[in-house]
Design brief:
By secondary structure, the protein is mostly helical. It is built from 9 helices and no strands. It has one domain (6-197). Helix 1 runs parallel beside helix 5, helix 5 packs across helix 6 and helix 6 (126-148) packs across helix 9. The longest helix is centred in the N-terminal third of the chain and has 36 residues, at 6-41.
Length: 218
Amino acid sequence: MPESGPIPAVRYLIEMVPKWLPWMTVNLVLALIPVLIALVLFRPGRRTTALWWAGFVVFVAFLPNAPYVLTNYRWLAGPWRNAWHHDRWRYVTILPFWAVYLGAGFAAFVISVRLAQRFFERRWGRRTGRVAVVALAAASAFGLYLGRADLFSWSVVTEPGEVVEVVSAVGRGAGVVGILTAFVVLIAGYAAAIAGFDALRARRRPAEPGPVELGGAG
C-alpha cells in the first residue's frame, strides 16, 4: 500500500508533472496562437481589407486549439482513480495543477473571442459583436469535433480528404450531439467569464462621489 498524506501527495505530483508537461506545453502553445493573432488582427482602427479577412480565416481556423485544452480532462481519469484508491490527499495536489492547465486554455479562448467581439462592436455595432461571439463559438465547437477525429487546424490544407470524410459523417452517430454540447459549454462558459470579469471590474472601480450638500446649522 503506498504511503498517504500531504508529503507523499506532493511527491506524486512531482513524479507525474514531467510526464504531463510535454504534451500540456504543446497544447498551451497552440492555445496561445489565436490570442496572438487576435492581438494583431483586432487592434482598434484596423482596416478590414482583403488581407485582414484572410487573417480572420486563419484566426477562426486556429481558435479551436484554445478550448481543445478542455477536452484533455479525460486524461485526468487515471490520476483521479489512482488518488481514490491509494491516497485521496493527491486530490489536493493534482486538481489545482489541472485546474490551472484547463483554465489557461479556456482563458485563451475567452480572450480571443472577447477581442473579436469588441472589434466587431466598434466597427459594426453591438448586435454584430454578439453574432460574432455565437459564430466563433459554433466554429470552435465544430473544430473540437474535428480535433477529436485527430485533425488539426492545418488539416484543411494537408489532409482535405480526411476533413471531407469527417465532415460528411457529422449527421451520423453522436456528431451533432457532441457539437451542440460543446457549443453550449463554450457559450455558457464565455458568458460566465465575461460576467465575472465585469463584476470584478465594477467592484474595483472607485465609487463616484455624490453631490455635496451645502448648508449650515439651523
